[in-house]
Design brief:
eight-stranded mixed beta sheet; about 220 residues; Rossmann fold; globular; alpha/beta
């Protein structure tokens, strides 16, 4: 973990992996479970494709050193912590993480809450060259925001928290955004620690994500 400082002076941790001298960087944004073992695994896997990766501890504004499991009790803890963090504060942390790459091309990829935050970064910040959002439940409410970089979205068609009507509304509002859906996939299909994990869908979505970053992070 390294320590970063946001524009308002808030200090927070970020998990760092990959070659510190890699020519491209990725900000990997957590679910509502903190920078837990799953997020570290995702970060390390993406770093293996030639990126320096930073995964900011977004919960540090509410409580430090929080990592949660995928239990109903921890879901409620994560939701409560998320509710304490404003979009403006979260955006400052994302931008501070992007700035830590020292001017190299930076992409952002987020999962669950992080998917919504990656959309926030794409539409409210100029720090990112590309953004990818996996099952971001907050995107539909902000579907009319204008992305400042290329964006790719991934949704499970059986996600009970993100109905396909929301995805259709996003598609209609954002004809320039790449949107992929996965038949039978549920929320969190990309997380090996969840019962909803779908290895084939996760692999396909990750291949699409890597190809997208390879195209746009130059």
């Amino acid at each position: 973990m390294i320590e970063l400082t946001a524009a308002d002076g808030h200090r927070f941790n970020a998990f760092e992996t990959g070659d510190i001298n890699a020519p491209r960087g990725l900000v990997v944004v957590q679910e509502i479970f903190g920078v837990n073992a799953h997020m570290r695994l995702v970060s390390e896997r993406l770093a293996g494709f030639g990126y320096r990766v930073l995964s900011p501890a977004m919960f540090d504004r509410a409580a430090r050193d929080v990592t949660l499991d995928y239990t109903p009790e921890d879901v409620q803890k994560g939701l409560a912590l998320r509710a304490e963090i404003s979009e403006d504060a979260a955006l400052m942390d994302l931008e501070a993480t992007a700035s830590a790459f020292g001017g190299r091309p930076v992409g952002i990829i987020g999962y669950c809450w992080g998917g919504s935050l990656a959309w926030l970064g794409a539409t409210k910040s100029s720090h990112f060259k590309a953004a990818i959002c996996w099952y971001g439940g907050g995107i539909a409410a902000a579907k009319d925001a204008k992305p400042g970089c290329p964006v790719q979205l991934h949704f499970g068609e059986a996600d009970h928290g993100i109905p396909m009507s929301d995805v259709a509304a996003i598609r209609a509002a954002q004809p320039g955004v790449d949107i992929f859906t996965y038949a039978g996939a549920q929320h969190g299909f990309g997380c090996e620690a969840r019962a909803s994990y779908s290895a084939p869908d996760c692999e396909l979505a990750e291949l699409r994500s890597l190809a997208f970053f390879a195209e746009h992070l130059r």
